[in-house]
């Protein structure tokens, strides 16, 4: 079957003669290609349209002019006429002149285009009158019969085309392969497939303008809190928390107060500091007084104030590589500095409050002067952070109601991984995020190069507007100086220039709090491997995707990673039950099934008396326990992974123990017999592959031997990664 362009004529083609000719061309063999209604521009300022150009891989090409209706030629005036079926007669253009002019216009075009300039084509022209039948060799006006295709010829179009081609001469190529190559080039020149992408640089400018307007409007929240000395301000990623923290610091500074603005992430602090200085200088006309304005991470604050307080030995030892960022020595050092220096700030503003350890609030509060202000901005995503935080200030939390940092499509992606009060979506349209599911650049090493080429070459965007984020850091294959196509990867933002070849790479965690118009998440496929549990994967995707303002591309991953999943939270009853169980195990007492709710509540507050035992329903509220015992407990028809009623308790200490089932692998997980029991019991449905690690809880020994099953009691309140379970050995 011949290839037709277009495959189907549009409604704008009213001529039934052209439609009939199009249908007959469809029946030609696959040696032929037919292109209909091509616009030609033979000379500057002029234009024409070729009704059909027929390419034949065994010969060359024909330019055919189609005229419908009854045809007549007035030899006295040289005028052509067509009469429609309803009897209307009208003048038409000279079909011979049209066909000849179009044929020569195409010839000139092919000779000047580099794709066809070296190809020798045989070509000619013909005229089709699909609505008339010509008897014998009758000439129609000046047109010889051998150049005409009438209604009878149309029924045998392949034969008629062959007759016209033989009359015009032999082909100029010797084999079918050369002919196919020549016709393919003919199509590319005369009927090219064109894709003109949207000018993303213009789109980004419009998006940035819309985001800026939304962000400025969010400042109204601070206006409403002007009389508040203390405030907790929460919101999801993209709600403008960092911007508002910076504006609040500026407001306090311009009121003549001494201000501390601190956060967790160093790159974020490195961005905030010059940005805040610029805003203050633009507003006041003066450089900020650095004696009244301190901006930095909590850890840099610890070092600087310890040195200022004369605690030089302590300051010299404070190194994250030595202690780790959550080591208590940081808070201890800042506490000693605060006690020696006394209160230093009239206002303290904390960004990324969800990442601050509870121990850090003590020295920070010591640095606040009497009646000083304390503002904390934090992410309230309950999927990632515990809802039960200990803040240094009281009162309600004020919610930022609007997503302001990114477009509506990116907002819709990010909120799938957010649990809390969903913010109002931004009224800022933009391109849909693109997710390349599967093995990412591990499976297709050229994928990143193709994406960068599209953005920077085809879309004319600047590498300075983009960042490549990875869940890996030192182990990433996106190493410093690596060439990806025509571009060079760098982890140093100073190397990225406006029109340069360097593209910034960062780990997702390190880039937390920062943003770019365009973000490419790479190496995401590794999140399906060992060592990555679901909550960590969710946190990385939530943080990484929310760094993009306008354009988001994700390389790698599975569909379910990007879907909404209802988060599981511990109820107060479960928390009390868990505290009861842990307390009794630590005391060496096996929990029995009889005690009041009040006693269980007392246990969670202060521990039970040795002769008091919690009630069975308090330990495992029936409607909240997921049972994962073996099929022998429920019969052969029990469906795996389905919530079942708990089996009768086995109270013998010889065959029951309690453990923690972690949802990520440990070094010795393969050696632990409880792992296979968890798999057999169906508990592996709740955890990622590989299945988790069973660890004895609070020093209790795990029973050995074949297992009857494992029951989940409750998720641990201090971790989203672990379950407290009962392990039952078969007697």
Please give the CATH class of the largest domain. Alpha Beta
Largest sheet: 7 strands, mixed
Stretches where pLDDT is under 50 for at least 5 consecutive residues are 565-654, 662-709, 712-721
Mean pLDDT, all residues: 78
Q: Whole-number radius of gyration?
A: 38 Å
What is the molecular shape? elongated
Cα-to-Cα separation, first versus last residue: 75 Å
What is the helix tally? 22
Number of domains: 4
CATH topology of the largest domain: Trna Endonuclease, Chain: A, domain 1
Q: Numbering strands along the chain, what is their spatial order in the largest sheet?
A: 16-22-21-17-20-19-18
Q: Structural class of the helix and strand makeup?
A: alpha/beta
Measured as a percent range, the helix fraction is 25-40%
Per DSSP E runs of 2 or more residues, the count of β-strands stands at 27
**Percent strand:** 15-25%
CATH architecture of the largest domain, by name, is 3-Layer(aba) Sandwich
Give a verbal description of the structure.
The structure is a single chain. The protein is α/β, with parallel strands linked by helices and 731 residues long. The protein folds into four domains: 3-190, Trna Endonuclease, Chain: A, domain 1 (3-Layer(aba) Sandwich); 241-399, P-loop containing nucleotide triphosphate hydrolases (Rossmann fold); 434-562, P-loop containing nucleotide triphosphate hydrolases (Rossmann fold, 3-Layer(aba) Sandwich); 572-729, no CATH class. 31% of the residues lie in helices and 21% in strands. The protein contains 22 helices and 27 strands. The strands form five sheets. It has a seven-stranded mixed sheet with strand order 16-22-21-17-20-19-18. A six-stranded mixed sheet has the order 1-2-3-4-8-9, with helices on both faces. Helix 18 links the parallel strand 21 (516-521) and strand 22. Helix 8 (241-254) packs across helix 9 (266-284) and helix 19 (572-586) crosses helix 20 (597-606). The longest helix is centred in the first third of the chain and has 19 residues, at 200-218. The chain is elongated and about 115 Å long. It starts with a strand and ends with a strand. The relative contact order is 0.06. The model is unreliable at 565-654, 662-709 and 712-721 (pLDDT under 50).
């Amino acid at each position: 079957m011949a290839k037709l362009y277009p495959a189907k004529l549009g409604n704008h083609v009213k001529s039934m003669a052209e439609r009939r000719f199009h249908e007959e061309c469809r029946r030609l063999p696959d040696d032929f290609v037919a292109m209909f209604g091509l616009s030609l521009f033979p000379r500057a300022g002029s234009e024409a349209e070729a009704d059909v150009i027929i390419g034949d891989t065994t010969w060359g090409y024909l330019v055919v002019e189609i005229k419908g209706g009854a045809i007549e030629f007035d030899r006295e005036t040289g005028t052509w006429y067509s009469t429609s079926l309803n009897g209307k007669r009208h003048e038409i253009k000279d079909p011979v002149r049209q066909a000849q002019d179009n044929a020569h216009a195409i010839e000139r075009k092919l000779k000047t285009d580099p794709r066809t300039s070296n190809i020798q084509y045989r070509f000619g022209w013909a005229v089709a009158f699909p609505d008339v039948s010509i008897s014998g060799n009758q000439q129609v006006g000046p047109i010889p019969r051998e150049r005409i295709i009438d209604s009878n010829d149309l029924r045998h179009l392949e034969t008629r085309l062959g007759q016209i081609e033989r009359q015009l001469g032999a082909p100029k190529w010797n084999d079918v392969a050369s002919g196919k190559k020549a016709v393919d080039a003919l199509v590319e020149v005369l009927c090219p497939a064109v894709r003109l992408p949207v000018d993303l640089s213009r789109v980004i400018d419009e998006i940035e303008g819309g985001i800026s307007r939304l962000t400025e409007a969010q400042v109204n929240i601070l206006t409403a809190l002007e009389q508040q000395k203390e405030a907790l301000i929460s919101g999801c990623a993209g709600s403008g928390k960092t911007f508002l923290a910076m504006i609040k610091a500026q407001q306090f500074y311009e009121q003549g107060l001494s201000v501390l603005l601190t956060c967790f992430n160093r790159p974020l602090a490195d961005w905030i500091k010059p940005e805040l200085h610029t805003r203050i200088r633009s507003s006041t006309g003066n450089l900020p007084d650095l004696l009244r304005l301190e901006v930095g991470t909590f850890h840099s604050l610890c070092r600087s104030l310890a040195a200022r307080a004369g605690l030089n030995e302590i300051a010299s030892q404070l190194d994250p590589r030595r202690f780790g960022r959550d080591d208590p020595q940081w808070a201890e050092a800042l506490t000693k500095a605060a006690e020696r220096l006394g209160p230093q700030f009239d206002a303290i503003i904390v960004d990324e409050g969800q990442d601050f350890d509870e121990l850090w609030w003590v020295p920070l509060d010591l640095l606040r002067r009497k009646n000083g202000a304390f503002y904390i901005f934090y992410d309230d995503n309950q999927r990632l952070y515990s809802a039960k935080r200990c803040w240094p200030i009281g009162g309600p939390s004020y919610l930022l109601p609007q997503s302001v940092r990114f477009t509506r499509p990116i907002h819709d992606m990010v909120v799938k991984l957010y649990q809390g009060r969903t913010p109002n979506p931004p009224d800022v349209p933009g391109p849909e995020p693109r997710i390349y599911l599967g093995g990412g650049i591990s499976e297709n090493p050229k994928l990143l190069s193709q994406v960068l080429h599209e953005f920077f070459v085809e879309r004319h965007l600047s590498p300075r507007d983009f960042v490549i984020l990875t869940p890996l850091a030192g182990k990433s294959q996106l190493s410093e100086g690596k060439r990806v196509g025509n571009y060079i990867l760098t982890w140093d933002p100073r190397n990225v220039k406006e029109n340069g070849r360097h593209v910034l790479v960062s780990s997702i965690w390190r880039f937390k709090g920062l943003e770019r118009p365009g973000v490419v998440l790479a190496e995401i496929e590794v999140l399906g491997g060992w060592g990555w549990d679901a909550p960590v994967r969710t946190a990385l995707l939530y943080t990484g995707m929310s760094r993009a303002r306008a354009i988001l591309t994700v390389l790698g991953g599975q569909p379910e990673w990007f879907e909404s999943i209802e988060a599981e939270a511990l109820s107060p009853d479960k928390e009390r039950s868990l505290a009861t169980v842990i307390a009794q195990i630590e005391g060496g007492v096996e929990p029995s099934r009889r005690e009041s709710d009040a006693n269980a509540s007392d246990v969670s507050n202060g521990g039970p008396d040795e002769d008091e035992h919690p009630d069975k329903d308090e330990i495992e509220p029936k409607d909240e326990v997921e049972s994962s015992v073996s099929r022998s407990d429920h019969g052969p028809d029990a469906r795996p992974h389905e919530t079942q009623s708990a089996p009768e308790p086995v109270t013998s200490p010889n065959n029951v123990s309690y453990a923690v089932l972690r949802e990520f692998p440990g070094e010795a997980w393969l050696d632990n017999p409880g792992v296979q029991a968890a798999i057999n019991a169906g508990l592996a449905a709740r955890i990622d592959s590989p299945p988790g690690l069973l660890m004895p809880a609070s020093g209790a020994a795990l029973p050995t031997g074949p297992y009857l099953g494992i029951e989940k009691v409750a998720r641990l309140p201090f971790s989203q990664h672990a379950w407290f379970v009962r392990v039952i050995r078969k007697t």
